[in-house]
Amino acid sequence: MSQAWLLRRLLGVVPLLLAISVLLFTIVHLAPGGPTDVYADNPSVTPQALAEIRIAYGLDQPLPVQYLRWASAMARGVWGYSIRTGRPVTTEIAERLPASLLLGGTALALSALLALPIGILSAALRRTAVDRVLTLVSFAGISVPVFWLALMLQLLFSIHWTLLPAAGYETIGDTGVLDHLRHLAMPAAVLSLATIANWSRFLRGSLVDALQQDYVRTAYAKGHGTAGVIVHHALRNALLPVVTIISLDLASLISGAIITETVFAWPGIGRLFVESMDARDYPVLMGLMMLGSLALVLANLCADLVYTLIDPRIRYE
Amino acid sequence: MSERAASPAINGDAAPGAAAAQPQSRGRSFLRRLLRAAPARVSLGFLLLLAATVILVPLCSPYAYDQQDLDLIGQPAAPDGAHWFGTDTLGEDSLTRVFYGGRISLCVGLASALVATLLGTAIGALAGFFGGRVDQWLMRGTDVVLSIPLLPLVLLLSGMFRPGLGSLVLAIGGLTWMATARIVRGQVLSLRELEFVDAARALGAGNGRLILRHILPNAVGPITVSATLAVGSSILLESALSFLGFGVQPPTPTWGNLLNAASPWIGTAPWLALPPGLMIFATVLAVNCLGDALRDALEPKD
Amino acid sequence: MRGPRTPIGARASVAALLLSFALVSSVTSVAAPLPLPSASPVHGGTLTVGISYDIDTLNVYVTAALGDIEAAVVEGLVAPDEHAHYVPVLATEVPTLANGGIELTHQGKAMRVTYHLRPGVLWQDGVPLTSADVKFTWEAVKDPHFLAESKDGCEGVESIDTPDAATAVVNYRSVSPAFASTLFTFGILPRHLLAGKDLNHDPYNDKPLGTGPFMVSEFRRGQYVVLDRNPLYWGRDAAGRPLPYLDRIIFNVIPNSNTLGTLIRAGEILFAPRIPVMLAKQLRGTAGIDLVTGPSLGWSYLDFGMKQVPALRDPAVRRAIAEAINRAALVKAAGNYPQPIHSTVLPVFETLYDPEPDAAVPDYDPAAANAALDLAGYPRGPDGIRVREGRPLELGITTQSGDIDGEIAEQILIAELKAIGIAAYADNKSGIAYRQARYKGAFDLQYGRITTAADPVYSMFYGTHGPLNGRGYTSAAMDAALARMETSLVPEERRAAGAEMQRVFARDLPSLPLLSYVSIAAKTRRLQGYVTNPTNMTDFVGVAHWWLSPRGTAP
User: Fold this and answer.
1) pLDDT digits (tens, 9 = 90+) for C475-499
2) What is the rounded CA–CA span in Å between residue B42 and residue B55?
3) Which residues, other chains included, contact C231 with Cβ-Cβ below 8 Å and sequence gap of 6+?
């Protein structure tokens, strides 16, 4: 892998982030109202205090100047203060991030765990009834509305059979691991459904392609069994394209987390987003959007890097 | 939630629609290939049936979709002879609302997909045809929008401005064109190297004509597939927005806001949540199956 | 999806010392009440509470939400009990003219209120409470740099003297019957902790230090607040045993009403105050759960946006809209909990409420409404919607997004307006945007609910300069009646002025009162000693006396 390419790719991240920040800034400032609205209707806040706040926020400056101030502050790690709570945005996000990471991480792990066997099985047994059923199930997985699925699961597992807790991060007062797992089960299942479906279908597709390659026929000719062929030869090459869609599914996870966290009352950044939307808490919203975009950009970068590392045949000129 | 179906073709590597030599028989054999698979037949049939019912049922129903029944107001009533799907908290007939809501959800889905497809085709065609800096900048723009998580962005937009149907369609369509753009770009890139383009250019065709009359018609296949899949993701997106309280507001029903209204009653009146959710599910499933079958039917290889 | 947040800046004044309002607090269990063994209070137990609003801050003067948690942690000099009578808390008695606690000064134009502090009260960190804390509270709250929601009562104070550690003498600029409202009642701030600090960003806002029965142990934002028993609490029960009974209270933030319902049914949440009516309807009949309805000094209303809509400036149009509303539908949709009202003065305020027909707003009469609109020059168009000068009569109704009860009511209103040819649509706003629209009058029609203190200051809502008169209503007759109502100390005068005010109101219709609300709490049958508090101090004012019967003993 050429050093020049690597360097160019890494540097390319910066203008991308800048462009994203400009877009977000523009959108948010197009909105009617602004950060001082929360004080504007408070009868205790004198017009003088209001003016002071506006100056403190830099709202009296022209828009490009405001953007530069905001962008440089963001780059330095100063993300402003939440309008709703008055605390630093970074604190608000940092408090809620672990819960979302736990949920997202579990969903990803679950996806990998289930998508692999499903994809392999589908490919190995292609065109049989099993494959058709699994394919249909995959389609179902990407077609079902997340919020409805969440509600149905709640109905089934929490209301009808009281097996799992309907919502929350932990039973109040109980901090055992089993308790956490029980709370994690439904949200993680709901969140991972779409990615399981995507990955298994994608894996099936690329595995089927790989299995038709010459080197596979050679392997069979040499006497290797189906399982051996798949695992030792085809899989490695088949996994490669899957890497490219993982980063896109990260976007899906972030979006899906908003709904899942809302229905299951999971105290993560997805719910923080909705709460901040309700309160028009633009500093927090901006912080979350930038964080999400940063995650996506980095994920794409990693995907490219991994792709290059895995497949020695690919060279980016 | 997945806003798009998985597809290896997302990199636009499907073969360019083989030239427009014999459109008639190609069309017929295409249809035959398409309808050969059972899922495609079922999906198409379901969608046609759905279209018919969402138009007819509200017309034939004895209830208006916003007709409140004072006797039944206050608590959802279970399905009975007078109300086959039961009634909601306001005494409105659930069946009528589900099908009327189907109209709205389907229209928004179709319109958004149309906007996304038009936008994506335009951008992809320009990028693919002109190449060079135009391509670079357009693709960079695409990257920028792709790098922002979709649902938060749509929420942000619809939360800030008043949610009318038009602005909703624009918001959804304006943020889901990227996949189409990539596909079209790939198609145009390959197609513009073909001989018939040179021939047309030699005959004096300008760039616009080349793109619109010669190149794009050959890319209709992948564009259609993309458009079909976009309908599914638009419907999911709209219903997610309505479920979260943004998007279309009552009394106008959409499947999403019907689920929003039904969710407090999930424990005591689950029959309210089942039809709208099932409708979304079935419709999106049918659309995705159809799109997949379309793609298969377009491949010259089996 | 949050439930309704009630007193938006409406923590109005209370005139308890000169006039007392006897409110009957009804504790009725909607589920069939089973006879409980009359046990005596038991110490111990953890109460898990579900609240549907997000906690912005734990500083009672700053928060825009109701101060449930603060009421358990922070105490004031006096507090309103379940009958809306003031009782002494940190003061030894409620100052009145009779007991000499209030003296008139400057030839009766100003007054001086003396508080004697209860001896032996310690802050939760062990430091003794003194009058310096009282003085500090006033100085801190009135400080213009302190951005607080509830500063009522500060401006009237001229100065505070502290002759000794147990006495605070508050000198007022004028005679203010409503002095015992926000300041000092909401809570006393600890001088030894907060003197010289910036209250806008102090850790006190996350972990308030009070003198109350519970202390904040942990505050996990967006999730929960854990309160533990204050071992240094001064309160004792009738038998002399130390209060509180409960060991721990955990407040859980559960904005989603379905989730709250599920947790209540599962027994994970033992108490939920002020639940939406929708949730109450779903919980009816659940074993082991009681629904307690208490009077709420609240009512729902439809405001006319006269600033924004010329048509609404015509009293005939307002009258027609009033006649289009069938309150029976609204009551039924709200589970039959509320009562219809026809006056902005709630019937429960017996000394002011005028039941005469000319003091009542018009009742349901769609025929009259249709006739009136025809006469006023709004003929029906081809689609049934009335038009004027080519423009259809279309009005947006604004209510708070996420307020499920409000959104249901809104749908009913939309249907009822459609029946008289007005095309109404939902134009909901959330949180801050909603409050802004209310204050500025940026709405066509506004549906809301408001909860006030025991003696609402109606001039705030209907006076020309009232801060909550966003709709821009102004009337000399109304202002005159309000002025007499709010400065007179003679009950008969107040009643006459009140009647006049209601008559002007019924004629002018600045707003349309719809239903009087009750507050519904869901609680486990095990929770004893709970009484509802109809004021904006919340039920938790009496939390020291609540106790949980051990599992397995209550049916």
Assistant:
1) 899 999 888 887 776 778 888 888 9
2) 20
3) none
Strand C394-398 to C445-451 pairing = parallel
CA C248 to CA A164: how far, in whole Å?
26
Average of per-residue pLDDT values in chain C: 84
By the CB < 8 Å criterion, does B189 face chain C? no
Q: Which residues of A touch B6 (CB under 8 A)?
A: 142, 197-199, 201-202, 245
In terms of phi and psi (left: phi > 0; alpha: psi -120 to 50; beta: otherwise), the region of C13 is beta
Q: What is the DSSP letter of C391?
A: E
Q: Is the pLDDT of residue B157 over 90?
A: no
Question: Does the CB of C401 have a partner CB in chain A at under 8 Å?
Answer: yes
Neighbours of C331 (CB within 10 A): 18
pLDDT tens digits, B91-122: 899 999 999 999 999 999 999 999 999 999 99
**Chains touching C by CB (3 or more pairs below 8 Å):** A, B
Mean pLDDT of A239-249: 69
Mean residue pLDDT of chain A comes to 79
3-state secondary structure B102-145: HHHHHHHHHHHHHHHHHHHHHHHHHHHHHCHHHHHHHHHHHHHH
Enumerate residues 6+ apart whose C-beta is below 8 A from C56: A84, A85, C62, C63, C64, C65
Question: 3-state DSSP call for residue A13?
Answer: helix
Cα separation values, B198 from A308, B125, C4, C328, C533, Å: 36, 17, 68, 76, 85
Q: Is A164 exposed, middle or buried (0-12, 13-18, 19+ CB in 10 A)?
A: middle
For residue C50, give the nearest of C264, C317, C323 by alpha carbon.
Answer: C264
Which chains have 3 or more CB–CB distances shorter than 8 Å to chain B? A, C
Roughly how many angstroms between the first and final C-alpha of chain B, as a whole number?
31
Q: How far apart are the first and last CA of chain A?
A: 9
Most confident of the following: A40-44, A146-150, C133-137, C181-185: C133-137
Closest chain A residue by Cα to residue C63: A85
C-alpha closest to that of C330 among C222, C387, C390, C406? C406
Q: Do residues C518 and C539 touch, judged by C-beta distance below 8 A? A: no
Question: Is the reported ipTM for this assembly greater than 0.85?
Answer: no
Q: How far apart are CA C117 and CA C179, in angstroms?
A: 17
Name which of B276, B250, B272, B252 is nearest B262 in CA terms: B272
Identify the bridge partners of residue C292 per DSSP, sorted by sequence position. Answer: C29, C521
- The amino acid sitting at C292 is V
Q: How far apart are the CA of B203 and the nearest CA of chain A, in angstroms?
A: 36
For the question of whether the overall pTM of this predicted structure is more than 0.90, the answer is no
Distances (CA, A) of C382 to A39, C392, C490, C496: 46, 11, 57, 49
A278–C2 CB contact, under 8 Å: yes
Identify which of B230, B227, B191, B195 has the alpha carbon closest to the alpha carbon of residue B212.
Answer: B191
Whether the upstream peptide bond of residue C340 has omega within 30° of 0, thus cis, is no
**Contact state of B75 with C426 under an 8 Å Cβ cutoff:** no
Dist. CA B202–CA B272, nearest whole Å: 63
Q: Are strands C423-426 and C394-398 parallel, antiparallel or unpaired?
A: parallel
C4, C431 contact by CB (below 8 A): no
Tell me the β-bridge partners of C49.
C251, C271
- What confidence category does residue B198 fall into, taking pLDDT thresholds of 50, 70 and 90? confident
Long-range contacts of A3-11 (CB under 8 A, 24+ apart): A5/A316, A5/A317, A6/A305, A9/A301, A9/A304, A9/A305, A9/A316, A10/A301
Written as six digits, the tokens of B16 are 């360019």
Output the pLDDT for position C21.
33
User: Among the residues of C143-243, which ranges form H helices?
Assistant: 191-194
Residue C426: both structure tokens together:
């939902």
pLDDT in tens, C355-371: 888 888 999 999 999 99
